[in-house]
Amino acid sequence: MHGPISVGWLLVALCAVTGGYCLLRMRSAVEEQRRAAGGEALMGFGMAAMAVPAAAVTPPRWAWLAYTLVFGAAALRALWSARTSACHLHHAVGALAMGYMAAAMAVAPGGGHGGAGLPLVTGALLVYFAGYVLWAGVRLIPVAAVVGARVPVPRARGWGDRPELARACRLSMGIGMLAMLLTV
Q1: What is 8-67 written as a DSSP string?
Q2: With contact defined as beta carbons under 8 Å apart, do 173 and 18 qualify?
Q3: Which of 76, 103, 114, 153 is the most exposed place for a label (fewest CB within 10 A)?
Q4: List of residues 6+ apart from 137 with CB closer than 8 A
Q5: Is 149 part of any domain?
């Protein structure tokens, strides 16, 4: 990632922590949550690896090509899974965006110094992820309880079954994706 080094390292930390939490979510008793968490863990760790500031480490071209292949395969898997659940479409768009950024870095002169992406594709992805971040952020706002309404007591859940934390992770990855797309 190109830009201020401190911002790059903060993005690396955010994505790595998000990927780590997604690994914890893979321990859920619900199979669909485990599958989604696996894809999100891949995205989190992949984003962390790709966001390492260029001033610290400049990966060779073959690394960008490897990222392109890995995220292309992840996009195909997400598209295949979208037959049964529409939430996998977002995973497919995210994986395609990661593959697109990796491919742009692989073909960029000088080892991937910004401006290598196609403006129309980058713009469309920016619009998509900006909309997703706004939508995901609104979903984190708690719904006000109706006065006098009986509120169920939440049962104790494991770390893998906390929907509000899963939403926060998706929001943070969406914000990270926006930051990374701005550098393409």
Answers
A1: HHHHHHHHHHHHHHHHHHTT-S-HHHHHHHHHHHHHHHHHHHHTS-TTT----HHHHHHH
A2: yes
A3: 153
A4: 171
A5: no
pLDDT, tens only, 93-131: 999 999 999 999 888 876 555 566 788 999 999 999 999
Q: Quick check: 117 and 76 in contact, CB under 8 A? A: no
Is 30 part of any domain?
Answer: yes
Q: Containing domain of residue 34, as a range?
A: 5-143+157-182
Shortest CA distance to 3 belongs to which of 39, 38, 51, 35? 51
| Pairwise CA distance, residues 152 & 71, whole Å | 41
Both structure tokens of 123: 């713009």
